[in-house]
Amino acid sequence: MKIVRQRKSEAIIPTASMADIAFLLIIFFMVTTVHDVDRTSVNLPAAFTRIENDKGSAMVVLSKQSDGEIIYKFSDGKETSTPVRGPGDISLEASRLTFNDKTKQFVIKADYDIRYEKIDEIMDNLRKAGATNLLLLTHAKEE
Amino acid sequence: MRLQRKGQEPEIPTASMADIAFLLIIFFMVTAVFSATKGLELKLPSDDEQENRQVEEEEAVFIHVYGDYLLVDCKPMEVSDILPYLEPKLVRDAQKHVILYTDSEAPYARMIEVYDELAKSKGTDLDPSEWPFEVKNISIPTQSEVQNFIEIFGVNPFETHCDGQ
After folding, report:
1. Which of A4, A136, B27, B55 suits A118 as a labelling partner, its CA being 20 to 30 A distant?
2. Which A-chain residues 17-56 have CB contacts (< 8 A) with chain B?
3. What's residue B32's pLDDT?
4. Assigned domain for A107 exists
5. Per the CB < 8 Å rule, is B39 touching A137?
6. Range of A108's domain?
7. Do B14 and A19 count as a contact with CB atoms less than 8 A apart?
8. What's the pLDDT tens digit per position in A89-117?
9. Using the beta-carbon criterion (under 8 Å), do B107 and A137 form an inter-chain contact?
10. A112 is a domain residue
11. Where are the domains positioned within chain B?
12. Of residues B15, B122, B142, nearest to A49 (C-beta)
C-alpha cells in the first residue's frame, strides 16, 4: 500500500501590510497634530456662541492658583507661553506684535472665577498697546 | 546530472510592524491634547476712534453687572430677559449702542454670561439667530476709561445714570 505524505503548511497571519498601516498612521498624526502654544490648565467660562480663533493668535493666560494668586503668561502665537510679571509686561509684548500687525488677534484664556478687575486690566493694557481684535476663550455651554 | 536546490525567497520581516503600529497609536492617544480654540470675539476701540465714541445716554442701553446682580437701564433683570427687553429698541434702531459695564468685584464668568447672551442675537454659521434683530454695537468700557470720564466731566456715568429711578 502506498502511503501518501501530507504536506502541512504553517498557519500565518499576513503582516506584510502592517508597514503601510504604520506609515499611514504616522502621516495622519503628523498632519493633524497642532502645536499648542499653551497647555496651562484653566477652568474656562462657558458660552453658547463661539468663534474659532485665528491661526497664530497671541495668547494671554491668567490662571488662578489655589492660594488665590494670579499667574500671568504670554505667547506671541509662535513660541510656547512663558510666565510674565503682570499686565505691564503683557502690554510691552503686545505693542511689539501690534507694531508689525495692527490686526493681530489676542486670545484671553482665563479662569472663570477670576475677578473681572484682572480681565479689565489686561483689556486696558492691550488696548493701549494698539490691539483691537480680541477673543475671550470659552468652552461650550451645555443646553 | 547535478540537481539544483531550491533557494528560499528573500523577504523583509514585517511581523513586528503590528506592534509598531499599536505603539504609535497608543503614544499619540496619550500625548494628544484637546485644546479649546473657540471663544467670544470682542473689538476694542482703537485710539483713532476715540473722538466718535461718546454716546448720548438716551441713545444707549446700559447694562450694569455687579456681583450676581444685573441692572438693565436701572431695572433689575435676569440674563434671559435681556434680549426680549432689547427687541423693541433694536428693531426701531438697529444701530443702538449697548454698554456693558462690569464691576471690578464681579466674577469674569458673569460678564461672559451677559456678553454671550448679547452675542446670541447675532448667531453663528451653525446656529443662526432666532431673533429679528442683532446687537451690533456693544461697548465694554474699562475702569480706566470710566476714570478718564470722571476726570473730564466730574461724574461717574454709571452712578448718575440711575439717580432718581
Report:
1. B55
2. 18-19, 21-22, 25-26, 29, 33-34, 36, 38-39, 44-53
3. 72
4. yes
5. yes
6. 46-140
7. yes
8. 999 999 999 998 989 999 999 999 999 99
9. no
10. yes
11. 59-160
12. B122
Whole-number average pLDDT of chain A: 87
Q: Are B35 and A44 in contact (CB under 8 A)?
A: no
Q: Does residue A31 lie in a domain region?
A: no
Taking the C-alpha atoms of residue B45 and residue B142, their distance in angstroms, rounded to an integer, is 11
Across the interface, do A132 and B46 touch by the CB < 8 Å criterion?
A: yes
Residue B30 near chain A (CB below 8 Å):
no
List, for residues B84-94, the tens digit of each pLDDT value: 999 988 888 88
The CATH number of the structural domain formed by B59-160 is 3.30.420.270
- Grid cell, residue B115, equals 456678553
> Coil, strand or helix: which one is A129?
coil
Over residues A21-43, the mean pLDDT reads 79
Number of domains in chain A: 1
**% of residues, chain A, pLDDT over 70:** 93
Residue written as grid cell 429679528 = B132
Q: d(Cα B45, Cα B140) in Å, to the nearest integer? A: 9
Q: Cα(A61)–Cα(A84) distance, rounded to whole angstroms?
A: 10
Q: What ipTM was assigned to the predicted interfaces of this complex?
A: 0.78
